[in-house]
Write a structure and sequence with these properties.
12 strands, alpha/beta, 2Fe-2S, FNR_nucleotide-bd
Length: 260
């Protein structure tokens, strides 16, 4: 079934997040072979928090609608929103957003929404981010917001992904890893590794996880995002290792992929 975004219509300037508004696509660029970042301009946007998401509604010519949620990837610095969409095999919405959506097209959106899985610049606690695959998207919003804010609290990212080619934000993370004294980045590759990597690919284990994150005695705020089994498994490992359950915030999306 062919589903298309809104091509015409009046933009809604209401600031309430539950109201559907029209966003214009102002840019789009690939992150890897199956993922694309989309930059949106939304009239009346009242800003967003790092870690929030938006809903996108596409409507087919016969009136059928499909709604999907996508995490915001950008920091709240210039009045625009960026999302990064990973194409799902046989998906209804993601193939259109990744392959067909063009600059100048319009989308119906609702949000940004969410007030729990968020990081705010006034928080001076050290922060541990743990992302599996495209679960890195809301964590990237936090990293960007942290970098832009001048907040000096230490940040650390553990990014678990299949291969170097499947990475999102590869160049930006590489640059930040070299240049930022506030951010430490660790990787786990489960299928293939970069040339010269000191270890072979392996699925994430509790031992590997605990060796690449802030220890529990440093009391970090922990944000975990990824597929459901990944998130549940990592959260269980953290609690068993002595991290306070109150310090762990999780965000999960569909699918049954584990810690691979």
């Amino acid at each position: 079934m062919a589903i298309r975004g809104v091509r015409n219509g009046t933009r809604e300037a209401h600031s309430v997040s539950s109201v559907w508004r029209v966003a214009e696509v102002v840019d789009g660029f690939p992150e890897n072979a199956t993922a694309r970042t989309i930059r949106l301009r939304v009239d009346g946007l009242a800003g967003h928090l790092a870690g929030q998401h938006i809903d996108i509604r596409l409507t087919a010519e016969d009136g059928y609608t499909a709604v999907r949620s996508y995490s915001v990837a950008s920091a709240d610095t210039d009045g625009h929103l960026e999302i990064t969409v990973d194409e799902l095999h046989e998906g209804e919405v993601s193939p259109y957003l990744v392959r067909d959506l063009e600059v100048g097209d319009k989308l119906e959106i609702r949000g940004p929404v969410g007030g729990w899985f968020v990081w705010q610049p006034g928080n001076m606690n050290r922060v541990q981010l743990i992302g599996g695959g495209s679960g890195v998207v809301p964590l990237m919003s936090m990293i960007r917001a942290h970098q832009a804010s001048g907040n000096e609290a230490p940040f650390r990212l553990l990014y678990s992904l299949k291969s170097p080619e499947s990475s999102l934000y590869r160049d930006e993370l590489r640059r930040l890893g070299r240049e930022s004294a506030k951010l430490m980045i660790d990787y786990v590759y489960t299928r293939s590794t970069p040339e010269g990597w000191p270890a072979g690919p392996a699925r994430l284990t509790s031992e590997a996880l605990l060796g690449k994150i802030f220890p529990p005695e440093e009391n970090p705020d922990v944000f975990v995002c990824g597929q459901t089994v990944f998130v549940e498994t990592v959260a269980d490992w953290l609690v068993t290792a002595g991290y306070s359950s109150e310090s762990i915030k999780t965000e999960r999306f569909g699918g049954t992929g584990g810690t691979r």
